[in-house]
Design a protein that fits this description.
With 622 residues, the protein is an alpha+beta fold. It has 20 helices and 13 strands.
Amino acid sequence: MKHRPFTLLLHIALVIILAGAIVTHYAGIQGSLTLRTGEAPVCNFELTSGPGDGTLPFGVALREVEISYYPGTTTPMDFKSLLDVDGKSVAISMNRVGEVHGWRFYQTGIGADFSTVSISHDPWGIGITYAGYALLLLGMAGYFFQPRTPWRALLRSRRAAAMILLLGVAASAQAAPRAMQRPLAANLGKIHVYWNDRVCPLQTMARDVTVTLYGSDTYEGLSAEQVLSGWLFYFDEWHRDYVARYPEAASLPDNPESKREKKLVERIGLIQWLGTGEAFRIYPYLSAEGNMEWLSLTGRRPSGMSLEQWTFMQSTMPRIKELLLQGKNVRANEELDSLKAGQIRFAGAGVLPSAAKLEAERAYNRLARPALAGIAAFVAALLFLAFPSSRKVWRIAMVTDALLLLYLSGLMGCLWWISGHLPLSNGPETMLFMGLASVAGSLLWRSGATVKGCLCAVGGLALMVAAMAGRTPRIGMLMPVLSSPLLSVHVMVVMTSYVLFMLMALLSGIALCSRSHARKESLSVTNRLLLTPAVCLLGAGIFIGAVWANQSWGRYWGWDPKETCALVTWLVYALPAHWACRPLRCFRRPKVLHLYLLLAILCVAFTYFGANYLLPGLHSYA
């Protein structure tokens, strides 16, 4: 180990992290406390783990609580509490920890006059663990520059340093019932609506409704806005048409158990919701207390609402419907413009999304097609793999890669601007990033059609998974606990490691299907080169997530299913990364390594999908 200090440092760091976890388990104190405004300071809390009797060495009282909302919505953006701790004023919120005399306070729950606070006292365990994280990061970074390592020897033999670094970045024939004319319906799609806990253009609601009811964002040549206008203004006709096409929607099943029956219940419930008018929450009302409410077509008049606004609510839509029935589309369009102007006037300045953001979301709804992008990625993969020596075909595939990279970058950038946060907070968004990273890696990889093709295939798979959530991945507000810059870093690092793991699995599959021993040997060298950075990236992603968890929940490790699965995956891939060690020399044999990496990808799949959908935990949002 004299010539490999960073290798030694890596293993020392793991021992230190384990020691920190042991200290936390036996000496760290965890608990919770519910405080109410106006009550006297308290010293006792509910002890959940650790030594002691649940007594603080000082008193804690709650001065005030505050819940902030996304502009124009009732969706919480942050929870804040002002505490009086040992005579000191301490402000805490989601991802903002208060600390007094080594005791840490975390915001976990809130109400109108109360706040639930998690309490932690673990100065030694956290200090030891964070020191281990720092040494692990230093060891992983230094390992790639350390001379006389098996990985460096492989790197020199393949002359692929630049490539590895770049990869780290990276129906029926009957006519439809009546509906608005397309230009008029497009204007209807521009009005604001409160839908899925956010303010968005009605076009977004129209697409969601149409996809839910018909499985597509169009119906009989009608746009989504036209379909929604039909349900809004000609409900009886559209309901009869729907029952004629889907007779099972005539009545609810008695005991829905199968997936199909549950989907049917969802569709019937949506139709009933549309029929009552409650789904169309298009009227903003700012109460005297400063709270924003969105009222539906059938909403009751709040006691403080002005007669002018109530008249606006009661007359706008009936007037538009009357004009449509009379065939006066120009006048109906003018009324829609008046409705949009009224929304802005009654909501107040700076509350509703800007016109630019509204148009950006409408463009995103029209252009976001991850399934088509996935098909293009598969086409590029096929060109690379089937015609590895044709320069003309190579250029076509490279142009396809470049266009895909521009398209996905624009899509992610548009999502970022519309939502106000980096789009890495849910499954479809992380799959889009994985597709982006894969396509970028394929474009930047300087040689080797096999690797470029496999990277395109990884990107295609990721984009197809993103498309499973719908043709247009849904935009959502960020939960308060996720509003941390560490979220983006954590997700990007982990997803980049997943790209490398997928790439290695595909390369292993190709190698196992090949009869050429030289090709198997060549691909095994490539996989061993990719293995080390992939393991380091996953390890870095895990400890970045631990730091974030400590800032949010007061603990850096809680054996959550996703955490545990990620740790198991890391250990599974760390095993062949030690192929240079004598006890693990079996991984020097190409067939053994390829078979192992092909099977190991099942761990990645379960970590991402199984832990999210089968095992409940703190990561269920992903």
